[in-house]
Amino acid sequence: MPKIMKTLTIAGSDSSGGAGIQADLKTFEEYGTYGFSALTTIVTMDPDNGWHHNVYPVDSALVAEQLKTIFAGGPVDAMKTGMLGSVDIVRVAEQAIKSNQQKNVVIDPVMVCKGEDEVLNPESAEAIRDLLLPLATVVTPNLFEAGVLSGLGKLTSVEDMKEAARKIHGLGAQNVVVKGGKALGGDRAIDVFFDGKDFTVLETDKIEPAYNHGAGCTFAAAITGGLANGLSVADAVAKAKDFVSAAIRSGYQFNEYVGPVFHGGYRLNR
């Protein structure tokens, strides 16, 4: 029997199943890895109030206990973070990575829920920037998050994305993927990958209808799965782009507010 590769997500719960821990574990399974999870927040959405998001952080001590359980078996082959919810939880994640000498760390710097446009917790965003980016093998901000982390504000072009990637790399991340997705103008879904020396522009046709709830979490989890399976960072990012595009293409309309990606799309359409 081949070795089972282990993957970890430190992230929040999305009750609708498209994003967060649910998306990560589904993606890890699609990559043939054994997924662990440490729950940081519980997010609910209110269909009687325009799908407004309510975010409930887990006590940081409980997050630390979950991670103690997980790392009792030693470091995992790759891990990611998602929604962390508080500065204390960011510090718990930092300590777990450092004390276990964890390699292959993917930081998805979640700052907003889809459909929302304000940073959930500005202090947490600063803690992610200062404490986790220096530990990141790969960081995967969307346009909004890249604008916040880089200090450049609103990004509207590929050149803006490249400049943001340079600045974020300067904060300590080894590799940066700035996700343009459907938010960038034009008919192409564009992401920019920067390894500290060279840029790679990853492009696909935009998919309509865009059932893309959970696309960001899924993309980062796919990179994590690729790294766990021994892919180089560049190859893991390229495969993750294909994986999430297939998941969007196979997504469906959940209700009037949201349509999630379908995480089995890549496998079922090969």
From TrEMBL:
This is pyridoxal kinase. It is an enzyme of class 2 (transferase). It comes from Paenibacillus rhizosphaerae. GO terms for biological process: thiamine biosynthetic process. Keywords: ATP-binding, Kinase, Magnesium, Metal-binding, Nucleotide-binding, Transferase. One of its GO terms (cellular component) is cytosol. Its EC number is 2.7.1.35. NCBIfam families: HMP-P_kinase, PRK12412.1. It catalyses: pyridoxal + ATP = pyridoxal 5'-phosphate + ADP + H(+). Belongs to the ThiD family. One of its GO terms (molecular function) is metal ion binding. InterPro entries: HMP/HMP-P_kinase_dom (IPR004399), PM/HMP-P_kinase-1 (IPR013749), Ribokinase-like (IPR029056). Residues 14-261 form the Pyridoxamine kinase/Phosphomethylpyrimidine kinase domain. The keyword Transferase applies. The keyword ATP-binding applies.
